[in-house]
Specification:
With 472 residues, the chain is α+β, with helices and mostly antiparallel strands. The protein has helices at residues 122-126, 200-219, 275-288, 290-296, 299-302, 307-326, 333-349, 354-363, 372-381, 385-394, 411-424, 431-452, 458-465; strands spanning 9-17, 20-28, 35-38, 45-46, 52-53, 58-69, 74-86, 89-93, 96-101, 111-119, 131-135, 148-151, 157-160, 166-176, 184-199, 225-233, 237-244. The protein folds into 3 domains: 9-109, no CATH class; 113-235 and 250-285, no CATH class; 289-329 and 369-465, no CATH class. The strands form 3 sheets. The chain has a 6-stranded antiparallel β-barrel with strand order 1-2-3-8-7-6. It is flat.
Length: 472
């Protein structure tokens, strides 16, 4: 397994606090916020003449706090809180911690010219395998029998972002060959991005979080953030490892996806997509459809929630997408209000009493809008013909558990009715009724996301046809 520069543990250290170097410690562990203690502080303040007092605990927010581990590694806590809880002691917590050798000092956060990281799902996303071919002998009886592996020299993929950043998705190999009883080669996927110097937080926002969202979306599974290192150069090279509550500090080895199981909605590789282009489209989709994006990008996490919660997230997200694409209604808000006013005036002139006019006024919203079932039908029309045909074929007739409205209704009428019942405290629906609606809304959401990303929905359609993806 790949070794990280800093082993998660608790370390004695010296903190720079109040202009002095004081003893303390820091706890650096996987999936936990970095925290520690500071000793030998002078937390007294002047009281009455000739006296000092301490009144605590007192929280103090600092942008970053520097220290030095006993191993000689620098540590920088970012977004730190110093809690002075005794006259000579304090607790310290940070949102993240940078730990490395030779980190730049000064009044500003360290900046880095590159970031290397691993998130789950890179093997599936990469669309390329690091091992080109292997060979094993038919028999071990022949003299000088050999086992052979050929490395794929084209496995590393490089792209250039619009801002000039260089993005590489590659593999590194770990091997054991000095043991006369065991021999192996294991591979690890990673991403490196080089570009203009920026803080760790900026690198995270620009690349780590978007790539993690993309792999989670592509594999339909919430993917971990395995590890992160950053590098820079001033008088000499420096490198830092990042610790935070969402970083597992656990590298994983590449494994071949299981045959016969759904693996990913999209792939990179020579015949696939550009990661630089995909990240750009991903961020633009976030800007154009923020509510829709927040729901579909977090889909893998939502699969752990109840069916009611998922439907109450998915349907409003689809409404939001429709509004973003087609507006609030078939007329402008000003036109709608004018029509509403005209109707109310006609009722008054026709002799309707004030209670009737008031009731009609309350029932007609002062904002234009589409009926929910109409929004959902129109969204299906925006899908690719292949995916649209599969949905239309599947929903031609309602299953018995959803045939409760009566009359000439389709599944979109039912979905709108169920969503309103859940949102406004109406009829309680069973999981048997909710499950097919959630599956359908989920598929519609993903189909629209693929379309906006300009990604073919071939993998989704194949998964539906093979029964690996439940459509309804």
């Amino acid at each position: 397994m790949r070794k990280l520069p800093v082993v998660p543990d608790e370390y004695p250290c010296v903190w720079s606090v109040d202009g002095s170097n004081v003893a303390g410690d820091v706890s650096l562990h996987p999936l936990k916020r970095p925290k520690g203690h500071v000793y030998d502080l002078d937390n007294w303040v002047a009281g009455a003449p000739g006296t000092k007092v301490f009144s605590g605990p007192v929280d103090e927010r600092v942008a970053f706090l520097r220290g030095k581990l006993r191993t000689n590694h620098d540590v920088v806590l970012l977004d730190a809180t110093l809690t002075r809880w005794m006259h000579d002691r304090a607790l310290v917590t940070g949102g993240t911690a940078l730990v490395g050798l030779g980190l730049p000092s000064g009044q500003d956060q360290p900046k880095f010219g590159s970031i290397t990281f691993q998130v789950g799902g890179l093997t599936e996303l990469s669309g390329a395998s690091p091992i080109k071919e292997t060979y094993r002998p038919a028999s071990l009886a022949a003299p000088d029998t050999e086992f052979k592996m050929v490395w794929n020299s084209d496995v590393d993929q490089e792209w250039t972002a619009l801002n000039g950043d260089k993005i590489t998705l590659g593999y590194t190999a770990i091997n054991k060959m000095t043991d006369h009883y065991e021999y192996y080669v294991k591979t690890h996927p990673y991403i490196t991005v080089e570009g203009e110097y920026r803080t760790a937080g900026q690198w995270m926002q620009d690349y780590v979080y978007p790539v993690r969202q993309i792999t989670s979306f592509a594999t339909a599974r919430r993917q971990p953030l395995s590890w992160i290192t950053l590098e820079g150069k001033n008088e000499r090279n420096y490198r830092a490892q990042l610790f935070a509550a969402d970083i597992a500090q656990e590298p994983y080895e590449a494994q071949e996806p299981k045959v016969g199981f759904f693996t990913t909605l999209l792939r990179l590789g020579a015949t696939g997509l550009s990661l630089a282009t995909l990240i750009d489209r991903w961020q633009r989709l976030h800007e154009e459809h923020e509510t829709f994006f927040d729901v579909f990008a977090d889909q893998p996490h939502q699969r752990d929630t109840s069916l009611r919660s998922r439907l109450l997230l998915l349907v409003p997200a689809l409404e939001s997408y429709h509004s973003g694409e087609r507006g609030d209604g078939t007329v402008t808000r000003e036109q709608h209000r004018a029509q509403r006013k005209a109707v109310l005036e006609q009722l008054t002139q026709a002799g309707a009493d004030s209670d009737t006019v008031k009731w009609v006024k309350e029932q007609i919203d002062d904002r234009p809008g589409y009926p929910l079932n109409k929004r959902l039908r129109e969204l299906v029309d925006e899908l690719s013909p292949e995916l649209r045909d599969r949905i239309q074929t599947r929903i031609t007739s309602l299953p018995p558990e959803l045939d409760f409205m009566g009359g000439d209704v389709d599944v979109w009428n039912v979905m709108g009715k169920v969503r309103n019942n859940l949102g406004h405290g109406g009829t309680i629906h069973t999981d048997d009724q909710l499950l097919p609606l959630v599956r359908l809304a989920d598929t519609l959401t993903i189909g629209l996301a693929l379309k906006k990303l300009n990604v073919p929905d071939t993998a989704l359609i194949r998964a539906i046809d093979c029964g690996e993806w439940a459509l309804f």
